UniProtKB/TrEMBL annotation:
InterPro entries listed in its UniProt record: AAA+_ATPase, AAA_domain_protein, ATPase_AAA_core, P-loop_NTPase
Family, similarity comment: Belongs to the AAA ATPase family. Highly divergent.
UniProt domain AAA+ ATPase: residue ranges: 238-375
Annotated protein name in UniProt: Uncharacterized AAA domain-containing protein ycf46
A Pfam family hit: AAA
GO molecular function: ATP binding; ATP hydrolysis activity
Tree of life domain: Bacteria
Keywords for the protein's UniProt record, in alphabetical order: ATP-binding, Nucleotide-binding
Length: 474
């Protein structure tokens, strides 16, 4: 992995990873003698427990490398000393780089973060160690299962992608203890720890697609794209994301939850507002961390609700928050377009006109759907769903009278009718289509020729020509 860098005479490398033991074994290659150092054990032969020198002081360990030829010293947790900005260590590395270049040696730091030190920045080269791929995770699973005479599960290895080797091994072991085989469900539950430990996002329960009334155009779009994730369809381009714009209460958020159930994937809610921090650079750092966790997680639906509220102030960001929102926005857009992960981003917006134009550019999302007020056919579906959900008794013949009601307002009608009766409850509800008539009309005009319609259209009555009976000639 680092052989080419060593051949080129790089004196200092940082291997970015949270798997120090795996990293130590992977970097070993022919042509150099590899040693490992940490502040507890000192210097040992890399990949073994054999202690060479009991040097625990980092400066002395660096000076020890000065005396070696064609050697690599793998330093564990040296970044903690560098973060403390200890002058002796910084100076020792600066002085050592010249010697290491001439002696064919190198210092390799194993670190979960990039140590930011201007004094060493030009000497240091950062290499990211990728997480184990599906094949490596399957081999790990086979090793565990073979001793127990249990058949390995390739799907479980695919689900485990995004875990470290240690996390995958413990998830497999827990599954074997609980179920007697490698259960994808248990591995998914253990994988969810990635999200919980990050503290940047939260899990939500997916919704059954049967809870979504109407919106057949959107459902069909998602169902067709879901075939890209079936075996044998790897040649099909995967779905990257969908932007749902429309009137409040029309089922945009519910559709995001239902998408996760269609695919059988976990649902993560990314609250961009909660990522914003008060310190300079904190918001951008949190955004990067969140997207890195999502990338590592693998197959997941990412729900970003009311995205226009998070990014509407992008243009004035430099005057209000030092440019943090604009920087977050720029990074988020780049990630949307360049992401190589298997995640699908479902973003909702009540007022899409407040979003910057670059957000809507082709390539960010696969499609932009406009979710309008439900048609008569959709209102009939929604009434049936709400009657079943709340045990209410609203007649479907009331659907034409509910013209202009959103799904959320029909749900409120179902709940209120249990106390006040259908007629009284209906009289008390004033729909948004009346109170915000102009705003809704403007949204509907914007959506015309700018977005796909998510709704199920009413069946137009067939035109019939009225034929007058001509009396027979006498």
């Amino acid at each position: 992995m680092i052989k080419d860098y060593l051949k080129a005479g790089y004196p200092m490398l940082t291997l970015l990873t949270q798997e120090p033991n795996r990293a130590e074994n992977i970097v070993i290659c022919e042509g150099w003698t590899f040693y490992s150092w940490d502040c507890n054990q000192g210097i040992r032969k890399a990949g073994t427990y054999k202690i060479i020198e009991g040097i625990r002081d980092p400066v002395q360990a660096i000076e020890w490398l000065n005396m070696q030829q064609d050697s690599v010293l793998i330093a564990h947790n040296l970044h903690l000393f560098l973060e403390a900005r200890i002058p002796d260590i910084i100076q020792a590395i600066q002085s050592g780089t010249l010697r290491w270049k001439s002696s064919g040696s190198s210092l390799v730091m194993i670190s979960p973060i990039i140590p930011i030190l201007p004094e060493l920045d030009k000497f240091n080269t950062v290499i990211e160690l990728p997480l184990p791929d599906t094949e490596a995770l399957f081999e790990l699973q086979k090793d565990l299962c073979s001793s127990l005479n249990i058949k390995p599960n390739r799907k479980a290895a695919r689900i485990a992608k995004g875990l470290t080797e240690f996390e995958a091994e413990t998830a497999y072991a827990l599954s074997l203890i609980k179920k007697g085989y490698c259960s994808t469900r248990i591995i998914s539950e253990q994988k969810s720890q990635m999200i919980r430990k990050s503290g940047l996002m939260e899990f939500w329960e997916p919704a059954d697609i049967r809870e979504v009334g109407g919106l057949n155009n959107l459902k069909q779009f998602i169902a067709k794209r879901a075939t890209a994730y079936e075996s044998g369809n790897e040649h099909l381009p995967p779905l990257r994301g969908i932007l749902l714009a429309g009137i409040a209460g029309t089922g945009k958020s519910l559709s995001c939850k239902a998408t996760a159930s269609i695919l059988g994937w976990p649902l993560i809610k990314l609250d961009i507002g909660s990522l914003k921090g008060s310190l300079v650079g904190e918001s951008e750092r949190k955004m990067r961390e969140a997207t890195q966790v999502i990338e590592a997680f693998g197959e997941v639906v990412v729900w970003v609700d009311e995205v226009e509220k998070a990014f509407s102030g992008t243009k004035s960001s430099g005057e209000t928050d030092g440019g943090s929102t604009a920087n977050m926005f720029g990074y988020f857009l780049t990630w949307l377009q360049e992401s190589k992960g298997n995640c699908i981003v479902m973003a909702t917006a009540n007022d899409i006109t407040k979003l910057p134009p670059e957000f809507l550019r082709a390539g960010r999302f696969d499609a932009t759907f406009f979710v309008d007020l439900p048609s008569t056919l959709e209102r009939v579906e929604i009434i049936k769903i709400m009657n079943q959900k709340y045990n209410s008794n609203i007649s479907t013949t009331l659907a034409p009278k509910l013209n202009g009601f959103s799904g959320a307002e029909i749900e409120q009608l179902a709940k209120d009718s249990l106390y006040d009766g259908v007629d009284s409850a209906l009289e008390a509800i004033v729909p948004l289509s009346r109170t915000m008539k102009d705003e809704i009309s403007n949204l509907q005009k914007w959506a015309h020729n700018r977005a796909r319609l998510a709704n199920t259209a009413d069946i137009e009555p067939q035109e019939q020509r009225k034929i007058h009976v001509v009396p027979a000639a006498s």
